[in-house]
Amino acid sequence: MELEIGGASHAYGDLQTLDSLDLAVEAHGVIGLVGPSGCGKSTLLELVCGLQEQRSGTISVGGATVADERLGRCAFMPQRDLLLPWYSAIDNAALALRNQGMGRRQARNTAGALFERFGLAGFESVRPAELSGGMRQRVAFLRTLVAGKPVLALDEPFASLDAITRAEMQEWLAAALRTDPRTVVLVTHDVEEALYLCDRVAVLSARPARIVAELSAPHPRAEDRDGAVTDPVFVATREEAMRALREGS
Amino acid sequence: MRRWLLPAALLALLLGLWQIACATGWIADALSLEPYLVPSPAEIASSLWENRDLLAENAWVTLREMLFGILAALVVGVGFAILMHWSRLLRDAAYPLVVASQTIPIVVIAPILIVWFGYGITPKIVIVALICFFPITVNALDGLRAVDPEAVKMMRSLNASRWQRFRRVEAPAALPNLFTGIKIAVVVAPIAAVFAEWAGSDSGLGHLIQSDTAYFQVARQFATVAVLSALALALIGLTALAERRVVTWR
């Protein structure tokens, strides 16, 4: 298993956010975490990435159990794109490489090679302010991918986009993961998005979060998104997830 | 165009009214003064021209005091802001003192500094720097602290060291605030320089204004004020230009 969480609990002061949570994800598996607002989804993601250390229980990413070591194996994509306005699109995408000590030209070449595939060709030297919402998210995802870590932790990556752009970005992410499979932990409040993009979806309860249901997605990352999400099995699974979500909150 | 034209027109109107008020003797009569104590804009302009060498010579002295003072405040202020940003202990200990230091009136300490450092340029630079230090330090620190915590998490997850986080995220994010601080510093620097010269000096625009008081050289005093004001405006303009060149993403 690439990611293993065993009895993890966490709290901010006296506020219990996670309650003895167990979860396992195989290498190149995509797991979705859905749950009511403020239930601790983002906290769980930060714990997995090693941005924080849990109060109790174990979290292991590729065998790394200490927060600092997990940080080396996970790339975190926050809710907002957080592109740095003083850098061009390509320099934003190449940020992880520059942090790893790679020279500017080589870092740009490495990140630039992916621009074409990500539908960003021609926008390399453009500043983030001049990019559309969807493009900004793609650059942000590229930045996460280029870090070269085995695990990607995505925190509601498409929450700020309009419905059409979001559907497009879901198809785009599905395609990106088909060609470049990674272990992904995706936090979202959109059940349909989770069931389309992930192999499995864990439904979390209200704070303190525990897993109330774990569902297998019928057509993970199908090429025909519209067909997949309107399929009766998909719709039934979505309803089941919604029920679990309601019961847990 | 409108941005320049309207203030210029208003200035011309005010100068015109002033000229008329002087030519007719209204102001002098109203204040019961000899007319030569109330110079007209035309007289000030001719004083400006006649005394151009003297004014330029003294302007150069004051300009150097301001520039070195601002530069010193910039180096020390930014350095101190970075240290306070990096060390919570230092910030908690020093920040209240930095704020409290602003309650000390410059007029009071200027003569002390003259006693310590003599009549040369050093006490003037120290006084200008002391005044400029506060806006620069406080604004730079605010800028550094206003960095989005999510951006810091993102950088940590992208293998950034403490230094890389500072260089690539915190420092650029703080630049607009730093320029706000510099603009405030540039505005108060001439006032600080004049105070410093009044406390004890043998040259500079402040010194010139002071010595002209004794000889009722009112026209030249106004001319000196005009030069001082022009220096300050030029510095503000240069700062704004530098900001546009550096903060290109706004």
Shape of chain B: elongated
The termini of chain A sit apart by 30 Å
Strand element count of chain B:
0
Question: Sheet with the most strands of chain A?
Answer: 6 strands, mixed
The shape of chain A, in one word, is: globular
Beta-strand percentage of chain B?
A: under 5%
Largest interface in this structure: A-B, 27 and 19 residues
| Helicity of chain A, as a percent range | 25-40%
Task: Note down, in words, how this protein is organized.
The complex is a heterodimer of chains A (249) and B (250). Chain A is an alpha/beta fold. Chain A contains ten helices and nine strands. In chain A, the strands form two sheets. Chain A has a six-stranded mixed β-sheet, sandwiched between helices. The two termini of chain A are 30 Å apart. Chain B has 250 residues and is mainly alpha-helical. Chain B has helices at 2-23, 26-31, 41-50, 52-86, 88-100, 106-117, 121-145, 149-157, 162-199, 205-214, 218-246. Chain B starts with a helix and ends with a helix. In chain B, α6 packs across α7, α9 packs parallel to α10 and α10 packs antiparallel against α11 (218-246). Chain A binds chain B through residues 46, 49, 51, 71-72, 74-80, 82, 84-87, 95-96, 98-100, 127, 129, 143, 147, 153, and chain B through 148, 150-151, 153-161, 164, 168-169, 172, 248-250.
TL;DR of this structure?
With 249 residues, chain A is α/β, with parallel strands linked by helices. Chain A is built from ten helices and nine strands.
Which tags fit this structure?
heterodimer; A: about 250 residues; alpha/beta; 6-stranded mixed beta sheet; 3-stranded antiparallel beta sheet; globular; B: about 250 residues; mainly alpha; elongated
Write the layout of secondary structure elements.
The complex is a heterodimer of chains A (249) and B (250).
Chain A lengths: L2 E10 L2 E11 L4 E5 L6 H9 L6 E6 L5 H5 L2 E4 L11 H5 L1 H5 L4 H12 L17 H14 L4 E5 L7 H17 L3 E5 L3 H7 L2 E5 L6 E6 L8 H6 L1 H17 L1
Parallel strand pairs in A: 3-7, 3-8, 5-6, 6-7
Antiparallel strand pairs in A: 1-2, 1-4, 8-9
Chain B lengths: L1 H22 L2 H6 L9 H10 L1 H35 L1 H13 L5 H12 L3 H25 L3 H9 L4 H38 L5 H10 L3 H29 L4
